[in-house]
Every structure is written in structure tokens, then in C-alpha cells.
Amino acid sequence: MKFVKPFNSSIYLFLTVITGVLSGCNYDARLFKKAKQNFEVGEYEWTIREVKPLAQRYYRAKETNYFVAESYRLSNRIQYATPYYLIAKEKGYDDKNINLHLAYAAKANGKYADARKYLKEFIDSKPSRELVVKAEIELDNLPSVEEYSKKPSPVKIQGLVGNTNQAEFGPIKIGDELILTSSKKPLIYKNNGLPFLGLYKARLKSPGEIEKLELFSANLLDANANEGTPAFSKDGNTMVFARGNSGKSKDPSPDVDLYISTKRDGNWSTPERLAISDSIGWDGSPAFSRDGKTLYFSSNRRGGKGGLDLYRAPMDNSGRFGRPINLGSTINTRGNELFPYVSEDGKLYFSSDGHPSLGGLDLFVASRSGDEIQIEHLGVPINSVGDDFGLFLADSTQGYFSSNRVGGKGDDDIYYFESTGSEDRWWSNEIMISESGEAAKVALYHLRTQIVNARNKPIAKAKVGIKRNGEIQPVLFSNAEGYLDIIDLNPADQISFNASKEKYLTKRSEFLMDGREIPKQLLKKELTDTTFDHKITLGLAEVGEEISALFDVNPIYYDLDKSNIRPDAAAELDKIVQVLKDNPAISIELGSHTDARASAGYNLKLSQRRAESAVKYIIEHGIEASRIKAKGYGETQLINGCSDGVDCSEEAHQENRRTEFKITDLND
């Protein structure tokens, strides 16, 4: 008989427990590693699902709680982050910004005293100057926030019957239908765990109830991307909407861009990316002016005031958009401004978390009084401690907006509002006549234009051709102070200038009245005279002069290891084509550059291909080949520190992949 060792139950139990513990530890470690990977690629909902159980078991408590809190913040759900930040802070997680995040989380929950406490603690920790300013602004805003929380808005609201447990927002009423954005696509967007967003429509059973959602148009559907927030032209045949955030590593548009589609024979065309979109920025929430000649949108492109800013871009009669213009620091803040909407009376409604807000985004209205823009908070219940955005006015008594406030059915919901009968309505566009029969108030508008040189000195006897709403006007000449004759304006005027002077470069410029008219209910006097100033700067025609800044031409950029002309580059080259047509005596060099990756020899050849590609585009658009020279500089003229061996972001390398423009010859 073989020898059999007696069974020892105590040893077996001990080994079983130890094996289970080690197995559990290995499982937690693998789960934590996977969650970190998800977090780093922006899959915040997946991170929350994987890390929450670890945080609840206090596995690596300071890290797991911090990752949960950050995932909530970065997926726009900071109101849920407080308990996780507090544990991470208690356990000593090394992030000096935790108190700032806690302040925003407290504010998002309506706990303004806690927000004040955390902001003061954050400022006392001596963070960077930029963050100190940000925190001080929030601290200064809190008294206004507490006042706004008690400000009544003359409306009653109700959740739209037809909201689902997903996201619905950005409503637009067209006829008896509501066009909106909803997360109903089959695939899941890993940032927030909801289905991808798409464009949908629903018939209105009543102002506050919709029937079942239907796909707006199969031609506009990209199952692997978020799409939404449509804007329609006045005739309803042109639509601009936002698309992006597919989450795929090879996505040519890794953020959000604006796309345009037109309706022909009842069908919407395949969308095309708008050239005014910033290829490395976020561009979204578009809206047309009431006359359809200006597109408003939100963007975080370089040169803004803070996070997301509001911009406007004029559209000409051929449907092409001009250079986007920032709406300025009265409207735009260090925070985020988005979801613009222009009413019939020219008021601009928008959402912001940079102006004093109750929690996240609040709804505001901007109107002009004389030469000043006034910003008004819309009060409660239209605003809440949640995000309130996407307002649309159906008529003078009712409308819609979007919110993720507590008590809704889904992530974002649509709300219907109607007037409570108050005469003091922030959306009223009626002209009030006093009982005394006071005469109607009138506003007159004028334009004063000055021609100056690069040192802001006046240029006399400059010749200026003018088009008014597309019609040619008599030529004007500037006087000794550089001024043209005053032009009397009408509310919808679009004035185009073409200014020239011997030895100077001819330059085009534009002045639009869109959005400048004073709402009639804000007129204080029977007659209000308003004069707008417009300045046109002419540069000298000199060999070696770089012309980009003078003509508001941005350097054109290229994708990695590519020389083809991207849509954003084509928009800039179109400006150069116009400059060359307006100035037939000049010749220019197109100098192209690369980043420092790859060998110097290869980059020199690549930059030459890029320059030749740009030259070919210009020649194809009607410019003689003899007037343009292609010059590749390779990596010899980097504009930042991203040289060989330096670890730089893709955005930093992008700055070096450019083409610039300078004058090389003046032909008599």
C-alpha cells in the first residue's frame, strides 16, 4: 500500500484563505490598472464603473476616490464628485486643485457657503496666478449668485412629455415638429456611458408633449460620432450642426467641428465640414441670426477670452462664411459661453458658467443700450443649480430650453415654459406705448470710417470702393484725418470696403449691422443717434513684408507627414488669392515648414512638397505662376522648442507644420 499523508483541515483552510486573498489582490490590481488606462483615454463612465467598487473597499483609497471624482468632473457630472474628493483629500492625494474642484461641486449642489469656504482655502494654498484669478472671480460672483437664486422669472415650466431616460436637448420648433438632439444611437460613447448623440424629430401633440422620436435624416447619421444642435437658415434649406467625439484614435476630427448640409428635393445632402471650423479646437452649438446672414457658434480656439467663447461669422450671398469674430469680453468670460440664440428683436440669449451662475451653466440675455451691451440673468425657475441651456422662443408667450436639473427623466431633458402673464418678460419684443400717447422712439445709425497706416497714423486721399448689400456705391476718398464721409445706416446693412493708396497694399474690409441695432424697448429718448467707428489699416508694399497679420490670414497647417491642402488651409489660401488679385504688382513666397520629427533631409523635401501644394492651389484659382514661389524650409525655422529629442504635444508639433507668406517682388 502506498503511503498517504493524513489530511490536515487547519492547514487546508489557511491555504484556501491565503489563496483567496492573493487572488483578490491580483484582481483589484488588474482592475485598477485597467481603470487608469480607461481614464487616460477619456472613458470616464467605464472608469467610474470599474473604480467605484475599489473605492468602496478602500483599495488604494486616495487614488481610487480621486479617479472617481475626476471622472465625474470631466464628464460634466461634478455634482456627484464631492464625497470622493473629500476622501482623496483626507488620504493626502497630491492635487493642489482639489479645493477648487470641491468649490465647483458645492456650487453645483447649491451649497454656496461650502463653495465660499473651499475657494478661500484654495486661494490660501497659493496656486498659480491664473487659477487665483479664476477662484477670486468665483468668490466675487457668489453674492450675485445668491441674489439670483431669489430672482423670479415670469414663467411657469414643465418637463416635456416625451423626455426619455437618455439625453434630449437643444430643441427647435419648426411648424408642428420639434427638432432636437438625443442620445439614441446604438453605440455607446464611453466618456459618459450614454449612446452617441444624433439629430431627431418629433411631432408636437401639444406645446408641452411630443410623440415618439424619429431620426431626422439618414443622410446626416454617423453612427460612430456625436451629432447635434442644428441651426437652420431663414428659408429652412440650409442647416449647420456639430459633429465629433467619435472616440476613435484615427478620427480625423478628434474634437467637435461644424458641418453644413443643404436640402434639395426634400432630402438633406451629405454634410461637409465648414472651413471656419478650427481643426484642433471645439466648435459647436451654432445658431443663425434672424435674417440668416450671420452664424453664431461657440469655440475654444486660440485667442479667446477663456474656455469656450461665442463667435459670429458673416455669410455672403453665395453661402460662404467670413472670418469668425469673437463677441468680446462683455459677453465672453474666463469660463464657458455656448448655445447662442438670436431672437426676433435682436437679443442674444446664451448659456454661461463664467458669468455669475447658480451652479453650472445658466441662461442669460444680452441686449444693447446705446453703445453698451447689458447682460441679464434670467432668474428662476428658468435657471437652476444644474446646467440650463439651449433656449428657443416659439413665440411671444412660450418657448423651450434644456436642463440636467434634479427631477428630470434623463441626463439632459427638454422643458417647456410659458408666460405667467407678467408684462416684464425678458423675451418680450413688443413695443410698449405709454398711456400718455408718447410718440414712438426712433434710433438713427451712422458709420464713421478711418483709413490709417500700421502706426495708426491717418492716410489722406486713400481711394475706397464701397458695396452696400452687394450694390456698388460712389467711390469715396479719405480726408486729411483719414476719414471718409459719414454713412447713414439701415438695421440690416452689410458694408464692404476696398481701400487703396499708392505705395500701400490694397485691402478689403467689412462692417455688418447685424446684432448692433438697439432693441426698441430700450430706447430712452424720442431720437437716439448712434455712430459706429470702423478702422481700416493699410500696410506698405515692401519686399520682405510678412502679410499674414495685415490681412488676417492665419498660417496654414498640415497633418503629420502630409502635404495635401486641408479645408481650413483652403480658407486661408482663398484670402491670399484675393490679396493677389487686389494687388497685381506684388509677388510672394509661400514658405512651408515641418516639425522636427523625421530626418532633416526628409523634412526639407516634405516642406517643399507642402509649399508646392499651396502654390498649385493658388494657381488653380486664377493667379499667374510667375507671381508665386514655393520654398521649403524643412525643420530649420521651428517657432517653439519642439526640436529633435524634445517631448512635445501634438498641438505643439502642429504649430511648426505651417506655410507663411511674404512679399518677394514689386512689379511696376
UniProtKB/TrEMBL annotation:
Q: Mostly located where?
A: membrane
A Pfam family it matches = OmpA
PROSITE patterns noted in UniProt: OMPA_2, PROKAR_LIPOPROTEIN
Q: Gene3D superfamilies, alphabetically?
A: OmpA-like domain (3.30.1330.60), Tetratricopeptide repeat domain (1.25.40.10), TolB, C-terminal domain (2.120.10.30)
Question: Keyword set for this entry?
Answer: Cell outer membrane, Cell projection, Cilium, Flagellum, Membrane
Q: Where in the cell is it found?
A: Cell outer membrane
Outline the extent of the OmpA-like domain.
545-667
User: What cellular component GO annotations does this protein have?
Assistant: cell outer membrane
Q: What PANTHER family does UniProt report for this protein, alphabetically?
A: LIPOPROTEIN YIAD-RELATED (PTHR30329:SF21), STATOR ELEMENT OF FLAGELLAR MOTOR COMPLEX (PTHR30329)
Name assigned to this protein: Flagellar motor protein MotB
Organism name = Aquirufa antheringensis
